[in-house]
Amino acid sequence: MAAIVETRDLTKSFSGFRAVDGVSLAVEEGSIHAIIGPNGAGKTSLFNLLSGFIAPTSGSIAFCGRDITGMDAPRIARLGMVRSFQINSIFTHLSVLDNVKVALEARTDLPSRFWLPGTATKRLEPRALELLRDVGLEREHRLLAAQLPYGRKRALELAISLAPDPQILLLDEPTAGMATDDVGRISKLIGRIAAGRTVVLVEHNLSVVADLSQRITVMQRGKVLVEGTYEQVRSDQRVIDAYLGGGAGAHA
């Protein structure tokens, strides 16, 4: 299959330190591609580069064959590449439904207009409820987002991320801090929403990676160490050494 995202010799330096060091990566369209590695391997920095939150020092990024190197985050999101974050980014004082409606509003001319009547966003409710149904939150749509337990807040984030109908979804540590039951639910949810789109995830929980991913890139010290299927990377001695040496063996 064709690559939907491709990087060539991508590098990001911070005061002489190379957080991402010459990474060449190809993500196939329609796949779930995991990026793993010990803490400090450069995974989140790579995500920040792909999504436009930081600009590369050198190298290139292509999305759907288009050069997006150095393009800012809002423009990349409008092109169809959307990311989530490790930290909850929801509006806790708004209802679950209104959180999704805010995300949907961003795709219309409503954000540029002031003193809107309450009816102006009413037309967004059917789609918002559909997205909440997709992530299993339709029954909780009237609750304040603050009232949701942690795992359900992450499900709400997924609904918000899906609001722009992205071609590719970048998920940064989607199961971080979750209890075992929540991990299983979110893992199944990611598998469901991946239908018809591409998902790239940074994830420490290797059982989630094994269940979901068709392709895995292992990073260490800003570089690509190994790439392949789960079975290929889990038996590679370089990966074993990197995890044990990086203190991440407990996540295996």
Protein architecture, described:
α5 (150-162) packs parallel to α6. The protein has a domain at 1-71 and 204-252: 3-Layer(aba) Sandwich (Rossmann fold), CATH 3.40.50. The chain has helices at 43-50, 73-79, 96-105, 125-134, 150-162, 180-193, 206-212, 230-234, 237-245, and strands at 3-14, 17-28, 32-36, 58-63, 66-67, 81-83, 168-172, 198-202, 215-220, 223-228. It is α/β, with parallel strands linked by helices and 252 residues long. The strands form two sheets. A six-stranded mixed sheet has the order 6-7-8-3-9-10, with helices on both faces. A four-stranded antiparallel sheet has the order 2-1-4-5, with helices on one face. β4 (58-63) and β5 (66-67) form a beta hairpin.
Question: Mind sketching the topology for me?
Answer:
Layout: E1 3-14, E2 17-28, E3 32-36, H1 43-50, E4 58-63, E5 66-67, H2 73-79, E6 81-83, H3 96-105, H4 125-134, H5 150-162, E7 168-172, H6 180-193, E8 198-202, H7 206-212, E9 215-220, E10 223-228, H8 230-234, H9 237-245
Parallel strand pairs: 3-8, 3-9, 6-7, 7-8
Antiparallel strand pairs: 1-2, 1-4, 4-5, 9-10
Helix pairs in contact: 3-4, 3-5, 4-5, 5-6
Descriptive labels:
globular; 252 residues; alpha/beta; single chain; six-stranded mixed sheet
- What would you call the quaternary organization? single chain
| Alpha-carbon Rg, integer | 19 Å
The largest pleated sheet is described as: 6 strands, mixed
Low-confidence segments, given as residue ranges, are 111-117, 246-252
The CA-CA distance between the termini, in Å, is 30 Å
Q: Per CATH, which architecture of the domain at 1-71 and 204-252? A: 3-Layer(aba) Sandwich
Approximate helicity band: 25-40%
For the record, the CATH class of the domain at 1-71 and 204-252 is Alpha Beta
Shape: globular
